[in-house]
Every structure is written in structure tokens, then in C-alpha cells.
Amino acid sequence: MAITTFVQAINQALTEEMERDPLTFVMGEDVVLSVFGATKGLYEKFGPTRVRNTPIAEAGFVGAAVGAAMAGTRPICEVEFASFFYCAFDQVCNQAAKLRYMSGGQAKMAITFRTVYGAMGGAAAQHSETVYGQFLSVPGLKIVVPSGPADMKGLLKSAIRDDNPVIVFEHGGLGRAREEIPAGEYLVPLGKAAVKRPGEDVTVVAIGAMVPKALKVAEKLAADKISVEVVDPRTLIPLDEETILSSVAKTNRAVVVDEGHLRGGAAADIAALIGEKGFDFLDGPVTRVASLDVPIPFSPPLEKATVADEARIEAAIRGLVGR
Amino acid sequence: MEDLNKELLLDLYHTMVRIRMFEERVRDLALKNEIPGFVHVSIGEEASATGVCAALRHTDFITSTHRGHGHLIAKGGKLDRMMAELYGKRTGYCKGKGGSMHIVDFALGILGANGIVGAGLPIATGSALAAVVAGRDAVTACFFGDGASNEGTFHESLNLAAVWKLPVIFVCENNGFGEFTPAQTVTSVRDIATRAQAYGIPGLVVNGNDVIEVYRYASEAAARARAGGGPTLLECKTYRWEGHVVGEQAFLGAAAYREQAEIEEWKKRCPLIRFQQYAIASGRISAAELKKIEDETLAELDAAVAFARESPLPDPAEVTEDLYA
């Protein structure tokens, strides 16, 4: 097994899937040069027909990805930063998400959107937001949030093979995260959560870049004899309710950690699930740790004060277990 | 007209009659509340849909608009399944999940009507891109209105299609109104076709009520697209005889935003009458042949309405089907 970074994992998944299926192609802003390295080398390998720089025109090129999928190809469309999706909300929410259903199942919408989200140090509110919460109430989409290189590769490959519109959210701060990835074909199914660390006293459901933070906290608290189970949903749609609820049934306590905002986001959604279907398991309130409900500020101390971090995760866990 | 074969000429007329009769019937049924929801009809605009689709192959694609019945009929849509969809029946094209603004038939290359103005332009651009990626020689015709030409997606799509030389025909049906607003009061240019210059592609004004002229321009545009020559913008000048939405008089009253005299003036330029005059004057087609087409279409339409009325409604259990593949 080779040590691979998050960005290399994306590159491997794209290369393998483009080799596998000639109807796949990559389009987006600066994908030929590849600013973050995820699409590096694809142009040289697959040529100009299948690797296309788009103009900075999100409504136009995201809409073109929708049309290309409807006409039978499998676009992999990069939206450079997740907040740029706001420029293409119609194309994602009214078109990609709905047209299969509205056509009585005729449309095959095999699109994979890749985008960078999250606070990564001074990028300010329009390049730092965690926007998947906005897509959770759009039926027809699938939402994938990998937390490390191995899941990144396996989930992206599954997303590309899926016949539905899938948005893969890649945290900008995880780019150099390193992990061993099993050699050969490596697929992670959409809709299957992972227990990243088993524990007994409290369940922490953590999403995306919050997973490594939750694992650090769990390691620290183990010294204090607090046993933390960390569950990574990996995909928010579909959501593996069973794994989350089974964990809570065992630990009787739940903290949900997300980088999105507190109101109306993924943490709220998962907390509601646990409260509704896991009420009988609970010894205390479901606790959310999420970003403050302000735009992500620019100045480093302000950004740090806004985004969920290890200290707040630890405080939430200690608050629940009472020590 | 002399160079066009008679079979094609009869087909053109047949298609226009199918659209006209379908739309008139739909209007009447919607006014009686037999058809639910918002219904937009294209009476008076039959020639652009017909002429463009006659220039396409079965394997080519179209995208359409909220006023899309005519486009779908011209691309081969079946009246019975369309009517059933308008009635919200399970036998409709979309099993009752789409309705008037959202009919789709992938088998005919109809990528769908669309309820969002301007949404079809990037989709058509992408459909044309798919042909390039997959190595097929399919062309996509994109119908949209004067209103959509002021949407950002119009400009983004023309630029993208021009940069990538995509096989797409952008067909602007300028019917004079965006909803209830006269187009010239909210559009920066008199001829929307001139906007093609900004993107370095051909832009042509076409008499949108002359089906033969539309057919000729669309055929040239399709040939250019298929040969790798890139996109064309055709502006078909036409007129919307009916309101924006069927039943609008109930809340707007009569003559709220235009004069009846203007409507009457355009009715004199009816695309069907114009064709009848050509055809009979040419001596190649008789009045009896035209009448036969009308009679056959009426029978087809009656059967379509009967099919829609008799078809079952969807079962509520079907509500969660068709969301994901």
C-alpha cells in the first residue's frame, strides 16, 4: 500500500475512471493547468476533447454538464469553490436534481460535480463556506463529503459510476492529508457510513474535515478514560441512518460535528434524525458543534472563532459525559 | 418551393395543423379546468417549430420551453401521450410528474420543455458537447424566446458554444412578449439576431411565420453545425396570438397589455394560411389534399383526448418513484 495525499487520491480516481469509460470527461475552471493538482496530467493523457477548460461562467458550464449527461455522456464537472455553486443554483437544483423525476424516470443524469469547500485560512466568506447544507433539501442530488484520501478515492470512483447527479465536497484544508490507500481497484459505496474509531461512552458523528479533528479529540480523551466512537457518514445523501443509530444505541450519547452553519445544516439534520428515531437510546440531549451563524470571516482569529474546532468538540463531549 | 419535394411540403403542413389543433383544444380544455395547472400555448407560432424540426434528423436533439407543445409535436411527439401528461395521467410521457411545461421524450431526442426561462440554452449546449465527446454527428436545436435572450444563460451558452464550435442551432422565437411585457421595452437591440456578432457566430433574422423560409435557414444551420462549423443564432420573428398563460383574462381582463387590433393584424400573417396560399398557387398541392390532412388530424386529436380522459391517474404510491436511477 502506498501513502497518498488527498489531492493525489482525486487524481488517481479521475485517471482510473477516465481510462475505464470513454464517455467520461472533465470540464471546469482551469482543469488543464489544475490549480490544486487534482486534474494534473489529465489533459496530456486524455486530450482536449475530454479535458476542457471552461470560461468562468458557472450557469453556462454547469448547465452544459446537465445537457451532456442528458445526451448520454458522463461529465465530471469541477466548480472551483463551493460558493460558486450559487451562480449555478438553477442548473443544479431545478435541472440536474429534478429532470429525472419530472421526466418520469427518462433522464439519466450521470454527472459528478467536484468542488472545494471549507475554511482554509483567510479565504473569507465567498471562498470558505460549507454549502452542502443548502443542497440537503433538494431531492434528486447525492451529497458526498470524504474525510481522508482513501475514502476520497473510493467515493469519487463510485460517484463517477453513479447514474445520478452527485456533488463531491472536498475540504480545501485536507489537500495534503496523507493516508494509505489499498492497491488496485478501490471503491467505497455511496450510502455506507464508517466507524472511524470504536468507543463506548459517546458517539461523535463528524463530517468531512471534522473527522480528523474528532479523532484527535477522541485520542486525547482516551487518556481520561472517556471512550469516544467516531462515525463518519461519508455521504449525506443517501444517509446511512442505521450505522448512526446503532452507534447511539450503544453509547447513549450523541454529538454531531459539522463545519457548516448551525441552522438548517447537516448537523441539524442528523441531530433531528437521532432525536426522532433514537430518542429511547439517549441519556442526554443531542449536541451540535457547528460553525457560528455568521459568514466565515477573513482575519485568522475571527475565522478560528467561527469554525467548529477541537476545543469545542472536546467541550461538547465532556458536557455530555459529565467529566 | 419548387425544389422541395411534395412529401416534405405535406409533412410541413401536417405538422403545423397538428400543432394548431392540439393547442386550440388544449386551450379550450384548460379554460374548462379539465387540464390543471399553468398552460402556455403557441398558436400563431407553428412555423418556427415545424421548419426547424423538419431540418433535423430523428437522432438529433431539441430543447424546448414553457411554451413547448409545438416543438415536441414537430419533433415527433405523440398527441395521445402528450395529452395524457397534460391531464396528469399515468400514461403521459412523464407519468404525470411533469405536466404541460415539462414533457420529455428521450427516444425522440426531446430533452424536454422547461419551466425556467433560459434554462434550455446551457442544456442544449451540453447536448451538443456530448455529441463531440461521444463522436456522434448529432445536432441540437435549442428553442427559446425573446425573454430568454436577456438571461445570463443565453450569453454564457452562445459564448461557450462558439468557443468550442459546438453543433447547436439557437432558435430564438421572438413572439413579441416576455410574459406580459413587450419585448422591445426590455431588450437592448431591435433584432436579437445581432447579438450573435458579440460571439462571432452567424446571426440571422428569419420570417418566423414562413415555414419554408424557416426550414431553409435551419437546414443551412444544421449542415454547418454537422460539418464542424459551429453554432448559429436564428431569430424567428413571430407573434403570440394567445396570452402568456391560458386563462389570464380572468385576472388581467381583456387588452391589458396590447391592443386587439395588433393581434388581428398578426392573424392576417397566419403561418398556416400563408402555406395554404403558397401550396395551392404552386399547383402542386390541392385544397382537397390539405383538407384530408386536417380531417385526419382532427380524428387523431379526438382519439388523443379520449385516451387522456380514459387513462388512469397515478397511484399516490408512485410519488417516490423515478427520483434516483
Short recap of the structure:
Chain A is of the alpha/beta class.
Describe this structure in words.
The complex is a heterodimer of chains A (323) and B (325). By secondary structure, chain A is an alpha/beta fold. Chain A has two domains: 2-181, Rossmann fold (3-Layer(aba) Sandwich), CATH 3.40.50.970; 194-321, 3-Layer(aba) Sandwich (Rossmann fold). Helices cover 36% and strands 21% of the residues of chain A. Chain A is built from twelve helices and 14 strands. Chain A has helices at residues 6-20, 42-46, 58-70, 89-96, 99-102, 132-135, 149-161, 210-222, 241-251, 266-277, 300-306, 310-321; strands at residues 2-5, 24-28, 51-53, 74-81, 112-117, 142-144, 166-171, 178-181, 194-197, 202-206, 228-232, 235-237, 254-261, 287-291. In chain A, α3 (58-70) runs parallel beside α4 and α8 crosses α12 (310-321). The longest helix of chain A is centred in the first third of the chain and has 15 residues, at 6-20. Chain A starts with a strand and ends with a helix. The mean pLDDT of chain A is 97. The N and C termini of chain B lie far apart (47 Å). Chain B has eleven helices and seven strands. Chain B is α/β, with parallel strands linked by helices. In chain B, the strands form two sheets. A five-stranded parallel beta sheet of chain B has the order 1-2-3-7-6, sandwiched between helices. Chain B has helices at 6-31, 46-54, 69-74, 79-86, 120-134, 152-163, 211-226, 249-252, 260-267, 271-282, 287-310; strands at 61-63, 140-145, 168-174, 177-178, 181-182, 203-207, 232-237. Chain B has a single domain (6-305), classed as Rossmann fold (3-Layer(aba) Sandwich). Chains A and B meet through α3, α4 and α5 of A and α5 and α6 of B.
